[in-house]
Please model this.
Amino acid sequence: MTLADVVKPAAAFDVEALVRSAVRAIPAYTREEAPAEPPRRVVRLDWNESPYGPSPKARAALVNFDGMHRYPDIDAAALREALGRYVGAPAGQVVPGAGLDDVLSTLALAIVEPGDRVVISEPTFGVYRSLFAIHGGEVVNVPLTPGFALDADGVLAAAAERAKLVIICNPNNPTGNLFDPGAVERIAAGVRCLVAIDEAYAEFAGVAHRPLMDRYPNVAVLRTMSKFAGLAGMRVGYGVFPPALMPYLNQVMPAFANVTAASTAAALASLDDLPYLEGIVGRIVAARDALASRLREVPGVEPLPSATNVLLVRLPLADAAPVVAELARRGIFVRQFGRPDLGIVDCLRVSVGTPQENQVFVDELTAVLAEGVGA
Ligand SMILES: Cc1ncc(COP(=O)(O)O)c(C=O)c1O
Model:
């Protein structure tokens, strides 16, 4: 006889009843399947990472890191100080997290109640829709115009009622473009809720919205060390928030801001190596422009203007999915966004790699299209 024969459960374990309805309603996140046969070489251009990795000082900080047995700095004080200095804000207005995704979670925990409106403009970063819905928010999409401009009037109208948050991704992922500054400012000035500007790609665009916070008390700026600093695997993101919101964000922020001691060491060393990282950004921007020129030479292919380290590329096909799958089979990983309402089913998104990686991508894309895949 086993313990299970003696101790009978009171009733069936009902997982559906256990899980929050907002979570049950979220569609499952699907990842592209790995190719059945491992490709002979892998070129990863799907997650907008830096192809050059972290700065030498960050590498050295990790090699020499000897703090695994100690909790990180209390309240992430040194990290907040350094990030604040970098972005031009007092440390007391900085909320770090395990990546910008984690900062978005902290923000949602602090402000979103079931039924509160969160206004987004798709196509944009996919995490907004699922994260705020998980928190019970009513996610209202005011789509970008066909040319991927912000519909400022539409956002203002959508945010007039019950809105807690407008989130503007600028420059935008996956389209890569920067929005008209007048449209962004009109939204900041015209709503009563928080306007969070996600600047994950700010360093590539050379545009920063921190000064907008001096004019509008409802603006926050969100950033990450994942892209320009090559620290995606270390998970360090941050937000700069209005001072009056900080006590509440501090209250819900996870212990130690969820940033490990090792990640903190890597981030601090990166912020101490900015000239190196600026050089890397310059190389990526030059490689992006060269990649766009080369793509324009492929018949029917149209890379869209980008202020980031990614290019959205229109293909001469109704659906880019078969081409993306064939590229993956050949070891070249890029993304496609299959939701028809986003209006970019005919596009693929490619992160800018090293010049060599970009060349492999262009060559293989040219070959795949010439073979008639997806036609
Ligand atoms: C617009 C945008 N915001 C936030 C993130 C998340 O960044 P992190 O790696 O810091 O979580 C990404 C990552 O791709 C992004 O594209």
About this structure: The chain has 16 helices and twelve strands. The chain has a mean pLDDT of 95. The longest strand covers residues 163-169. The pocket of pyridoxal-5'-phosphate is lined by residues 48, 99-101, 125, 169, 173, 198, 200, 224, 226, 232, 237 (CB under 6 Å).
